[in-house]
Amino acid sequence: AAVEGFDIEDVEGAIEEAGHGPLPVLAVVGRPNVGKSTLVNRIIGRREAVVEDKPGVTRDRVTYEAEWAGRRFKVVDTGGWEQDVLGIDASVAAQAEYAIEAADAVVFVVDAKVGATDTDEAVVRLLRKAGKPVVLAANKVDGLSGESDAAYLWSLGLGEPHPVSALHGRGTGDMLDAVLEALPEAPEQTFGTAVGGPRRIALIGRPNVGKSSLLNKVAGEERVVVNEIAGTTRDPVDELIELGGVTWKFVDTAGIRKRVHLQQGADYYASLRTAAAVEKAEVAVILIDASESISVQDQRIVTMAVEAGRAIVLAFNKWDTLDEERRYYLEREIETELAQVAWAPRVNISARTGRHMEKLVPGIETALAGWETRVPTGRLNAFLGELVAAHPHPVRGGKQPRILFGTQAGTKPPRFVLFASGFIEAGYRRFIERRLREEFSFDGTPIHISVRVRE
Ligand code: GDP
Ligand code: GDP
Question: Which residues bind GTP 2 (predicted)?
Answer without folding.
Answer: 205-212, 252-256, 317-320
